[in-house]
Specification:
By secondary structure, the chain is an alpha/beta fold. It has helices at residues 12-19, 52-62, 66-87, 107-126; strands at 2-6, 24-27, 46-50, 90-96, 129-134, 137-140. It has a six-stranded mixed beta sheet, sandwiched between helices.
Length: 142
């Protein structure tokens, strides 16, 4: 698993498209479950997965239990790792950086940012490489 993280309009997608021109792109649907991982190309191909922020926001709307949310994304990531092994390919997750701005007053917005930060930590811990993109510049973190 690979991870690219950055803020809105930071250049994440352009960087990934340049580095992995043959990649297959998949945007998570808000209601998607771990059973939906069938788009990984075989034999060393790369699947780029976007839409994590919207997926997380939709998940938060369905439950007030933060641990249930964390359990859901762990299942999602474990299913993706299993698909990587079976297809002998690699997934590249593009994540949203939400933690470097103004802390919102609304409880729901703060909860989204907190859980997005925990999601990013989980993905980073599972990834063999992590890049941060800011202002179109890329820095390898792991």
């Amino acid at each position: 698993m690979l991870c690219v993280i950055g803020g809105a309009c930071s250049g994440r997608r352009a960087l990934v498209a340049e580095r992995y021109p043959q990649a297959v792109w998949h945007r998570l649907a808000p209601e998607e479950s771990p059973a939906g991982w069938d788009a990984l190309p075989p034999s060393g191909g790369v699947l780029v997965v976007t839409g994590w922020g919207d997926w997380l926001k939709a998940l938060l709307a369905t439950t007030a239990d933060d641990e249930a949310v964390r359990t859901a994304w762990r299942a999602q990531l474990s299913a993706l790792e299993e698909t990587e092994r079976e297809a002998q390919g690699e997934a590249l997750l593009i994540l949203d950086e939400m933690g470097c701005g103004i802390v919102p007053m609304a409880v729901e917005a703060r909860r989204l940012r907190d859980l997005n930060g925990w999601l990013s930590q989980e993905v980073a811990s599972r990834s063999r490489a992590v890049w941060q993109v800011r202002h179109g510049l890329c820095k390898r973190l792991k």
